Amino acid sequence: MKNTGEYIVAVAGQPNSGKSTVFNMLTGARQFIANYPGVTVEKKIGIYNYKDQKIKLVDLPGTYSLTSYSLEERVARNFLIDEKPDLILNIVDASNLERHLNLTFQLLEMGLPMIIALNMIDVSQNRGFKIDLEKLSEELGVSVLPTVAKKGRGKDDLKLLIYDACNNKESYQNDFMIDYGETMENILTELEDKIAADNRFAGHLPRWMAVKLLAGDPEVRTMFSGN
Ligand SMILES: Nc1nc2c(ncn2[C@@H]2O[C@H](COP(=O)(O)OP(=O)(O)OP(=O)(O)O)[C@@H](O)[C@H]2O)c(=O)[nH]1
Ligand SMILES: [Mg+2]
Predict the structure, then answer these.
(1) CATH number, domain at 36?
(2) For the FeoB-type G domain, which residue ranges apply (predicted)?
């Protein structure tokens, strides 16, 4: 594992979930803009120090899923695959929980350490929603922290959680797995074995590749056919 004295945290979430607001809340003024390799999509990077640690946040483009059909989705997912950040900070809009969990499941399938900031708790409460945080966290196998980023609420707890997660990655590495049913699972297992045995795909998560392959993902298909 790299230990360069700084941790890289990818801020991922659907559009309008409050990613940038959380990003600003955590990093304040220490921000700069870069680009992702080969594309013009803006890469917003922010830095803050916490205790003895330097934390580098990357504000990923907002996407509804992680297929490879749009540039933003490709950028977000390639960042996760290529850079293997120390942690994914998934921003979820508590007032649209069901819709936002779609991306959460896809992020979980990438097999990286992850935590969730359940943002917009104020909006969710105003709508009369009561979210059982413990149950949500238990079902997903991920730590869930409520935030109201617009008002700075949850900032200190979130910094502490990020610090803890970066320093104890194994405990934040989830083993979440969608069960696609017997027929699909049989095919997936076969594919996973083939992928795991193929050194072209070293460093890739076999399960993730197998799922994407079955879904007809163009990028993964190209990788597989070797073109
Ligand atoms: N009420 C409320 N509003 C929030 C909260 N967090 C963010 N917002 C507002 O929600 C809107 C969207 O926030 P952004 O931070 O821009 O969301 P984003 O995820 O970065 O959006 P994209 O970059 O377009 O994907 C802004 O108007 C924020 O001020 C919150 O916890 N509560
Ligand atoms: Mg934003």
Answers:
(1) 3.40.50.300
(2) 6-168
Residues 141 and 218 in one domain: no
Protein residues whose CB sits closer than 6 Å to any atom of ligand 1: 13, 15-21, 62, 119-120, 122-123, 148-150
Q: Please, what is the end-to-end C-alpha distance for the chain in angstroms?
A: 31
Long-range contacts of 58-62 (CB under 8 A, 24+ apart): 58/8, 58/9, 58/10, 58/11, 58/85, 59/11, 59/19, 59/20, 59/23, 60/10, 60/11, 60/12, 60/13, 60/19, 62/13, 62/14, 62/15, 62/16, 62/17, 62/19
For residue 139, the CA-to-ligand 2 centroid distance in Å is 28
Distance 20 CA to ligand 2 centre (A): 4
Nearest CA to ligand 1 atom 30: 120
Complex ipTM value: 0.98
Residue 193 structure tokens: 């074995």
Give the structural domain span for 154. 6-172
Query: In this structure, are 210 and 138 located in the same domain?
Result: no
pLDDT tens, residue by residue, 151-195:
999 999 999 999 999 999 999 988 788 899 999 999 999 999 999
Atom 21 of ligand 1: nearest residue by CA position: 16
> Considering the entire predicted model, what is its pTM?
0.92
